Amino acid sequence: MAATITRAPLSRLQPSSFLIGQHCVWQCTPVYISSAERFKSTKTVVKSNRGDDLPVDRKVDFDAQSLAARGYLRNQKAYTPPKDVKSKVLDICKKHMGNETLFPDFKTKFSVLVQCSQSLQHSVPNSLIHRINNIDELIVYYATPVSTTVPLDMMKDMDLPKNLHVVYKYHRFHPETDTKFGGITAFPNDSTLVTSIKYKKKYPSYIVEKPWLSKN
Question: Localized where (predicted)?
Fold first, then answer.
């Protein structure tokens, strides 16, 4: 692959002089350098712990329960507040703040949130830290349960109206398994794409071939 040619900055210009009458005129001649040479001095190679130049393989350990709870909800841990959550929060706040109800500074607020997280096994996300400025708001947060159940599964325990029927184990069309009408779908130009890691094996995808896009 040929290297591209770029113009050099003014610091790389080479001056040359010539005489016009009695005056000496300086003329700058631009020097052209390749992009490979330009980036040669700035390129760094990171050495790995194994002694080679290849990056260390990164492995991610997935929690099966956390992965199963993933849907269109934000991935987070379920939380059920204990019965004495109010007294626990008040004891922690009294230890760090005394009789004050507002956080006096960020250091005290950080200490209280860390100890509450360790004691109740439930931390405050970064998006909600600015909303908790006093003890009452902290108690309300830790008294609120967090459920990782998707709304579709929640409807199983709800008293739904009589004119609403929900199919929880829904059926997805696939021409290889739905042979009642010879594998013909009611939507011939629509593909069935399953992007969820959880349901990919349960519901296989089906991509409709576009005949007008095929090459002759």
Answer: Mitochondrion
